[in-house]
Amino acid sequence: MQEIKLKNRLKQHQKYLYISILLIAVYFIGSSLITPKITTVTENLTQDVIQGNLNSKKNIIAFEFNKLNSTLENSRSILQNTQKNTFNSLKEKLLFTADLALEHHSIGNSFVSFVDNNQGRNTHFFNIKDTLYQKEIHTILKKISFKDNEFLMDTIIAKKNGVINRKLYAKQLPNNNIAVIGYDVDLMAFWSYYSETYKGDGGYTVVVNKDGICLLHPDTAYIGKKIDSYFNKVSINQILESVFKVNGYYASNNVNTLKDSATSSYLGLEVLRYYDAVNIDDTSLIVVVNFPVDIHLKETKKNVREYFSWISVLAFSTFMLLLIISRVQLKKEYVQNLKVVEEKEQLAHVNEKYQKENAVLQLNQLKKKVNPHFLFNSLNSLHVLIDLNPELSQQFVLKLADVYRYLLDNKEGNLITLKKEITFLEQYTFLQEIRFNKSLKVSIVNNCDDKILLKKIPFLSLETLVENAIKHNEITKKNPLHIKIIINEDRIIVKNNFTPRKVKSKDSHQIGLNYLANTYQYYQIFTFKTEVLDDEFVCNLPYIA
């Protein structure tokens, strides 16, 4: 009897052997046909990576140059509100701002001057005792010509010991006197800091101003000079015209980024140059990112082909190893099966425990994910709001504090009453509506009495759905996002107009929706679902208790 069983198993496994060999042959034939397509897709993906690298570098440039310009902007803000300050108060604020500028690693000199037109007297405050520097400033102050009672200078000066970006702002005060503040940015020191801070293999970055003068280049010999060779085919005007301004920042006006191919005198290699612009307060800078073609395209395609060949060999080896192991196992006795009833009970218990632990884990992941991203966006909104509307900014801070108090609450379990969740959602949407201005509208429609508000739903469920809508949909003045939360007796319906973003969010991992699905599955409720109906994203959120 045992020999008959063994023979049957041998025949069965022999059949599996022939099928496996056939599958291996099909696999290798298919791989030879698919490899060219994979190469094309890889090239497209590489282009996407390069585009992402360009955006990253552009954001870094905007951040660093705005920091260099912050002292000038702070001084301008102080001088434009002189009616609220006495002379001594104004002087102390400007001197403090000038001293604070020197804390930046790339700023070497700063000064504050007051010109008394009534008595013909000048008062100068310098942070260093460099007589040559002081003479230069005196000469500049004599040549100041005002337009609209103010004067702004942002110029590049090449010196024997380096290149500086001299920034100066002068304002005519109500008493006809003149207040001036200025400082020098050491562009060589700035390049040293930049190159040490932002290392990587994603090509090298060149930054020029609107006049074509180089401000940042890995070859410091170019800094402070015009580099016309970069703009033979793509002009600076073309670059500025290819972007448009949104909320004070430049964004791409078309799908195809301006680019050009050239031979880099710095690397001695063929490079792809991508051009874009960033806004720095009242001016704009041109960012040119250079990517070596051999490294970022040809080498990548070559590597993909090699990797695919290795995968094919590995797949073949794996198939053969599995066949050998399966045939060796024919000589062994199979282990006795566990009782079906006991296995089902054990499996059900383990599955229930897993679902509960998984829901709690995803809730913790969701809270960790919400905290830094939401805080970063909120602080950016608050930064803009402080100057525009101080009273509203105070409300903003209080709402933000309430939101984080709710998020950081170490509550037991992962359920919350509908009333508390709505109160939290109102605070959360208050912050988001300020961030997106009139482009976001969240409304809550309650069709029930107060008893329904005592029912329980998953913690952060409404916030999760609102955040999901914000993250995955276009939000612009032309295409505003409307989110509607309808409270019924048996469930909550959350819907929004469905206008998905063209570029998906890189940090999207579906944590929020998975958390909700696992929570309802744990409580054996299967009516939770999300779907797109008539250009609307709709979520049915049932009550749990």
From TrEMBL:
Top-rank lineage group of the source organism: Bacteria
Name of one Pfam family that matches: His_kinase
Protein name per its UniProtKB record: Signal transduction histidine kinase internal region domain-containing protein
Gene3D superfamilies in UniProt: PAS domain (3.30.450.20)
Segments forming domain Signal transduction histidine kinase internal region: 362-439
Signal sequence interval, chain numbering: none
Keywords assigned: Membrane, Transmembrane, Transmembrane helix
Transmembrane residue ranges: 16-34, 307-325
